[in-house]
């Protein structure tokens, strides 16, 4: 069995490790190096400038504005997405009419709902962005949303949507929610399916209604999935690059209302050729992401319930 | 009513005998009906919110630009198949489709082969550095890609010998490298669940390590390979940021880039019918995969979040 073992191990690991080292590990290390230079990327010269880029970043109103927009999304989008996901999953799995003498059932057709709800998750974010760009078209006749509002007599609610500074960010956040709810419906459904039915039966016997069953049984037993889902959705909310780049005016507008950190980084590097400064933004994003993940893990921790 | 009664009732197959209606239904029948209507109402509403925009793309792909803009909700008056040929030829979607097929085809195969080779060695062999290499791979899942793209751009541009920017093989290698962390993580745990005895029997019969892997272990790992293969296919087919940065030549564009470019150039004018047909062209392969492998897609993607 030992014959040629090490040659085999080296043979199988060499290529994956070379690729991984070259395209992931080495860029990761280089990002820190580049962030301390004034490299413009075009000429070969990159001067070491220490923490100057970070200082400039700290004083940059544009970056703080982008970070603030990301943080707004980070607070709102996961709450709404996971809330809707839990609500739908609960209805699909527990909200059904009692039939076949089952005390707890899902509504009929729950497979069809899951199939449809999940769909936005599998299509490209580019396509999602183009679709919603059309829905938000500000023209009262051309825009789908405005046309719909007009048709049902709610003309007063018609809006310029992405062109309106006060609502543009929330329009983009809504698209994020729209795209990801189905994912959480499926995720939470799987978790709910593993909760023993006896627990629900006992609660129903004790006279609990659905409201109580949800908050006293389902939610506590699902807490692990909710916590992981929260981190995952938060990281998506910290991105938002493709949606903002394709949908928003400018992009990042109107007047910086939808600007986000990844868009700042992308434009600083690949439009303005300030690679050192953009790399410092990358490090800042790493710090923000890590801080968020650690805080969530820290504060969302509950005593683990075995069942 | 006692628990025993409910359990007895529950165990019966089929409807309860006439004259003794199911006890559970009798107890909460009214609440169940009302809630059921309510549940279905909300679920149908969300299904429409998800489904209608996607169907809108489909029916708009057969309308002319005027029809899409002036009457966004209207059904097509006649089927304009020329939208599809315009998209394929004049909007270059054919070329972008081909580019995507080449890149994704190469990288899915490469990811599966290299990823399972590395995972197999890490799961089944003890050697110094095994744990270190495993965690090195897994750590890659937590690097924000935005932080890596700037150095990555220069790694490809300054590649020894020739620039890898805007080449098929460059993009394929990068896609493989960025898919390795999750693939290795997933396949390692999968290979651990496979029985050791089969591999040992093959070795005793004189098969080499390599032969055992390709002819015995890999076929046994088929369910895992399908899940992770679909996961990688969807992720790479829909990839947006990496090609945006590394693939800036128009004749090498992948579908997501092509669509974003057309959408951004159009503003609110030009050939919307062709854009919608182009979106359908980009969506169809994903749609087919999702329709066939619905279960695997849902479980694969949710497993991705629960790493």
Automatic annotation (TrEMBL), chain A:
It comes from the Bacteria. GO terms for biological process: transmembrane transport. It holds the Pfam family BPD_transp_1. Keywords: Cell membrane, Membrane, Transmembrane, Transmembrane helix, Transport. It is found in: Cell membrane. Coiled coil: none annotated. The chain crosses the membrane at residues 71-94, 115-135, 167-187, 230-254, 274-295. It is a multi-pass membrane protein. The keyword Transmembrane applies. One of its GO terms (cellular component) is plasma membrane. Belongs to the binding-protein-dependent transport system permease family. PANTHER family: ABC TRANSPORTER PERMEASE PROTEIN, DIACETYLCHITOBIOSE UPTAKE SYSTEM PERMEASE PROTEIN NGCF. This is ABC transporter permease protein. It comes from Streptomyces clavuligerus.
Automatic annotation (TrEMBL), chain B:
The keyword Transmembrane helix applies. It is found in: Cell membrane. Keywords: Cell membrane, Membrane, Transmembrane, Transmembrane helix, Transport. One of its GO terms (cellular component) is plasma membrane. Gene3D superfamilies: MetI-like. InterPro entries: MetI-like, MetI-like_sf. It is a multi-pass membrane protein. Residues 1-27 are annotated as: Disordered. GO terms for biological process: transmembrane transport. Residues 14-23 have a biased composition (Low complexity). Residues 97-293 form the ABC transmembrane type-1 domain. The chain crosses the membrane at residues 34-59, 96-122, 134-156, 168-191, 212-234, 272-293. Belongs to the binding-protein-dependent transport system permease family. This is Transmembrane protein.
């Amino acid at each position: 069995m030992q014959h040629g073992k090490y040659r085999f191990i080296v043979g199988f690991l060499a290529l994956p490790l070379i690729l991984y080292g070259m395209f992931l590990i080495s860029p990761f290390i280089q990002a820190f190096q580049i962030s301390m230079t004034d490299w413009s990327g075009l000429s070969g010269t990159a001067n070491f400038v220490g923490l100057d880029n970070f200082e400039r970043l700290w004083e940059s109103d544009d970056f703080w504005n982008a970070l603030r927009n990301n943080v707004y999304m980070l607070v709102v989008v996961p709450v709404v997405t996971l809330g809707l996901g839990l609500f739908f999953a609960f209805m699909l799995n527990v909200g059904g009419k009692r039939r076949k003498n089952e005390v707890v059932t899902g509504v009929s057709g729950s497979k069809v709902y899951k199939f449809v709800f999940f769909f936005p998750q599998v299509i490209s974010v580019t396509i999602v962005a183009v679709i919603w760009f059309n829905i938000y078209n500000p023209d009262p006749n051309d825009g789908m949303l405005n046309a719909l509002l007009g048709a049902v007599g709610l003309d007063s609610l018609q809006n310029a949507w992405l062109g309106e500074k006060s609502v543009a960010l929330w329009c983009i956040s809504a698209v994020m929610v729209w795209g990801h709810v189905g994912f959480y419906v499926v995720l939470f459904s799987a978790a709910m399916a593993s909760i023993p039915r006896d627990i629900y039966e006992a609660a129903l016997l004790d006279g609990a209604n659905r409201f109580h069953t949800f908050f006293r049984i389902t939610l506590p037993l699902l807490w692990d999935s909710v916590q992981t889902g929260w981190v995952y959705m938060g990281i998506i909310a910290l991105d938002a690059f493709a949606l903002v780049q394709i949908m928003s005016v400018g992009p990042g507008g109107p007047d910086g209302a939808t600007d986000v950190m990844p868009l700042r980084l992308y434009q600083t590097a690949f439009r303005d050729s300030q690679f050192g400064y953009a790399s410092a933004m990358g490090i800042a994003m790493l710090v923000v992401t890590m801080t968020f993940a650690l805080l969530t893990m820290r504060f969302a921790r509950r005593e683990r319930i075995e069942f | 009513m006692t628990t025993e009664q409910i359990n007895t009732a529950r165990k019966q197959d089929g409807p309860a005998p006439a004259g003794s209606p199911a006890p559970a239904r009798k107890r909460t029948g009214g609440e169940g009906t009302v809630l059921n209507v309510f549940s279905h109402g909300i679920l149908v509403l969300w299904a429409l919110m998800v489904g209608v925009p996607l169907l809108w793309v489909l029916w708009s792909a057969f309308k002319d630009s005027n029809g899409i803009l002036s009457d966004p909700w209207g059904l097509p008056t006649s089927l304009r198949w020329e939208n599809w040929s315009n998209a394929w030829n004049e909007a270059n979607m054919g070329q972008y489709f081909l580019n995507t097929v080449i890149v994704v085809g190469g990288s899915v195969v490469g990811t599966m082969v290299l990823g399972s080779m590395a995972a197999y060695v890490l799961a089944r062999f003890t050697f110094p550095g095994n744990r270190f290499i495993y965690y090195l791979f897994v750590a890659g899942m937590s690097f924000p890609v935005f932080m890596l793209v700037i150095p990555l751009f220069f790694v490809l541009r300054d590649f020894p010998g020739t620039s890898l920017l805007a080449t098929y093989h460059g993009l394929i290698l990068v896609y493989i490298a960025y898919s390795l962390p999750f693939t290795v993580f997933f396949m390692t745990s999968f290979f651990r669940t496979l029985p050791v005895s089969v591999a040992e029997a093959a070795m005793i019969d004189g098969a080499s390590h390599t032969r055992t892997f390709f002819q015995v272990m890999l076929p046994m790992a088929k369910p895992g390979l399908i899940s992770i293969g679909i996961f990688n296919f969807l992720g790479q087919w829909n990839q947006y940021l990496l090609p945006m940065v590394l693939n800036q030549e128009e004749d090498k564009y992948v579908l997501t880039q092509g669509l974003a470019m057309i959408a951004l150039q159009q503003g609110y004018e030009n050939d919307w019918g062709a854009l919608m047909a182009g979106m359908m062209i980009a969506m169809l392969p994903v749609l087919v995969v999702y329709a066939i492998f619905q279960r695997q897609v849902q479980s694969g993607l949710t497993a991705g979040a629960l790493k």
